[in-house]
Amino acid sequence: MSRLGPQEKLAILADAAKYDASCASSGTAKRNSLGGKGIGSTEGMGICHAYAPDGRCISLLKVLLTNSCIFDCHYCINRKSSNVRRARFTVEEVVQLTLAFYRRNYIEGLFLSSGIIRSPNYTMEQIVEVARSLREDHDFRGYVHLKTIPDADPELVRQAGVHADRVSINVELPTAAGLRRLAPEKDGDRIEGAMKDMKNAIEEKRDARKRFKNAPSFAPAGQSTQMIVGADSANDGDIVQRAATLYGRFGLRRIYYSAFSPIPDASAILPLRRPPLMREHRLYQSDWLIRFYGFTPGEVAQTADDAGMLALDIDPKLAWALKFREHFPVDVNRAPRELLLRVPGLGVKAVDKILSSRRWRSLDLDDVARLTVSIAKVRPFITARNWRPTLLTDRVDLKRRLQPKLEQLELFAP
């Protein structure tokens, strides 16, 4: 590894980091270098490979400190027994690489994770030192997201929150049984303990900033986690319930779902095929329904089939509406916000605009059509000034009529 140049290390360690999905930079404090103070910014746009929930394109140098690891998790490409090319950055190399990329306007922040080398404490010290050096030695004001190691000393994990905008502590798999089977060296209780400690520290610092204006910030963008989907036997209902529990107990800002991808020289206990990417997408949609649309985990789970799997051909909100048609149609001129949010095809912004507009006039179908992408999806579930769905809501073939049409793309289309 010592003979590899920076370009070769970057090629190996940036590629090794692609399996980590939790790198969105939304929700942090605004900082910039206007007035000649410091370097970097958490604002603006750049060349990037990730998207924030608000739609911003964000540019992060997403890299591992090393892809060597003392653990042998079955699902991990960088596990100890994996036959992959290894590389390792020094702390100074990551710092200089981040600054150089920022000065060239390639990135607006850093996402840093790592395999475990020597020990969890040693690895955590190295990760924290990168962030400390950027902040204190170079006054870097861009976004920093650190992946922490729950087996490390709690004080080291806390130090990550001192220097980073967001921290991640991965639960890895949806169930405790899956974690014991596929990552026996990791302890689910210890992972949750680290997440609880981080939550408490974030809340304490937030309260301190309310009382004292000069109190230092601490992980202002909160903490997130990631679950691998399809590596174990957990169904979508299990995953949705687990996600809701994590949000409630640890105040997470985001949970990221990563579809399991078969790896070279894989263990015999892993599945041979990856799950459909649409399954990952449906879980994100379910996550959104719980966080922003007022659905309970149980309601989302009600849309699953007998095996506990969400439908792949339609989104979970439409699946719920089709299963519980007795709640529809909804009057867009009278219904409360919570009912309007359950109408397929109406997003949060559209509902807020409906509530605002109907204070001044009665809305017809054309008014609603201007607020949504697909009025055809909305029509069976609403009434308006000039519209009644009559028997449309109860049609036996309604699902087929509302399913997205499959389209064969042209291979050589411009």
TrEMBL record:
The keyword Ribosomal protein does not apply. Residues 59-286 form the Elp3/MiaA/NifB-like radical SAM core domain. It holds the Pfam family Radical_SAM. It comes from the Bacteria. The keyword S-adenosyl-L-methionine applies. Its cofactor is [4Fe-4S] cluster. Keywords: Iron, Iron-sulfur, Metal-binding, S-adenosyl-L-methionine. NCBIfam families: rSAM_link_UDG. PANTHER family: ENDONUCLEASE/EXONUCLEASE/PHOSPHATASE FAMILY DOMAIN-CONTAINING PROTEIN 1, TYPE II SECRETION SYSTEM PROTEIN K. This is DNA modification/repair radical SAM protein. It comes from Sphingosinicella rhizophila.
